Amino acid sequence: MEMNRQTYLEGAVPYPADVIREYVERGWWQNLTFGDVLDRSAARQPARTAIVDQRSRYTYAQLKEKVDRFARALLHLGVRRYDRILIQLPNRSEFLVAFYGMQRIGAVPILAIPRYGVREIHHFLQVMQPVVWILPSREGKRLSRELIEQVGPWTKGVEHVIMVGDREEIPNVLWMDDLTSDSALQDASGGDLIRHRPDPNDVAVILLTGGTTGMSKGVPRTHNSYLANIRYTNEGTEPEDVRALATPIGHSMAHQGPVGGGIYYGASLCLIETPRAQPILEAVELHHITMLSLVPTQLEDILNFPDLSRYDLSSLRKVRTAGAALRPETARKAEMFFRGIGADFDGGAFGSSEGPCATHRPNEPPEVFHRSIGKPMCEGDRWKVLDERERELPPNTEGELAAKGPCVFTGYYRSEEENREIFTRDGYYKMGDIGRMDEDGYIYITGRKKDIIQRGGEGIIPSQIESLLLLHPGIRSAAVVAMPDSRLGEKACAYVTLKPGGSLNLDEIVSFLKSKGAGVLQLPEHLVVVDTLPRTEIGKIDKKALQADIRNRVEG
Q1: Do 492 and 483 contact (CB within 8 A), yes or no?
Q2: Using an 8 Å Cβ cutoff, are 76 and 104 in contact?
Q3: What residues does each domain of the chain span?
Q4: Which class does domain 17-233 fall in?
Q5: Mean pLDDT of residues grouped by 10 in the chain (556 residues)?
Q6: Domain 453-555, what fold?
């Protein structure tokens, strides 16, 4: 089959040549690919455990062998450079095999979480046009064959479906075990994998994020840029470390943290499939975890776990939270607890799929540690605070945070209009977060410009839920806002007005949304029926007024 003649992924925005040259010359980019990083770790310590999950354990040599088999299998199936592959797996070793196998040949993984439903998958298939879809045979109570049947009309461009997990009779489905077994095809047409190595400035992965409007946006990240994120974010990781992944592997937080950092620095990685306190504590004790990354909800559950004292957590040397804001009182409690067992705690790490990330340094003053997100993490990245006219503001003045540099992306996938809105004239990415920077460079986030609900580390886009609510024949108008929650941080609350004579409760609305293909993250958890929705002077629904109302209802 003829090699793909493209020179860059269509729909993605490349870095300018002069910028690439500068970042490489300054050492911020190392001209490595994800495949190179795996090869390096496998060469340095082939017998060290690379990954362990509930079903399997692979050394670096074994992982590399599995990855190469899967890469050759993809070539045999006709997958080529720049082809997109939707990967929707839980925290299992097969995810790593698939991800790094794609990196071998320049195919581009689209990272999705298993909980996405019909509407989200439909959107990804339409916009990103993957040629392969990899998913588990079941997700909780949902069988994936049922999901495939529901999505069926929109899978025209998907040439292959690959499944992981318990087998069942499903027509036209390939099984990953067959593609990576000892008897799997070892030499596909296309020859040596080396000649399929992508360029370090090619797109390595498409992450998913809320963007500013509508459905999830694709965030293309190149090998050079994303590996720079990973290198700086995980400095201090040693080959002797055992890192744990307890958050979804389909999130950027996983790859900028334990997954990418573990492979980059040659450490071991333990994949925890059930993200609750007890399985996490059991894994720390059983596998002697040394570095643990959590979302704030998981941290609170661990600190409040009734039998916490009976677990041996002495192997831990570093614990970090990210993905959502951590309450100051929880940060103080965590700092005291982990210091008591000899571990460092960082409770304010900030990161995003688009690249900007910040963290704390050792020995910071308590008021800085508990209330700021620290300082920019990536060498070469520049942050500033902007007013509404994109002018830089002086220290301690609130405005929109913006960033530019080797760890910052260049624009959303196939989103020209939105890309024009989110970058300044001098190329800074406007992050959608409101904050300030003090004279010492510490960053404080004080609000959010983007309309996104952060539920336990998961981003929920209110407009997705609103568009579905308006399909209900009894609803006249609808707005979805963040409702405070002591455990999860925020939940989705739907405000609706009804047509004359109508009545609705939350269970009825949830059933209706499920019938329309809504995923778990598109289901509101609280309902308020009102006569009218408040409006701004220009006639838009006043969400600030609704957020104040639900806050008063919850907190009294």
Answers
A1: yes
A2: no
A3: 17-233, 453-555
A4: alpha beta
A5: 65 97 98 98 98 96 97 95 97 98 98 88 92 90 81 82 89 91 58 88 93 74 98 94 95 94 98 94 98 91 94 96 80 92 88 90 76 90 95 94 97 94 95 92 84 83 86 91 90 94 93 89 94 78 90 86
A6: GMP Synthetase; Chain A, domain 3 (3.30.300)
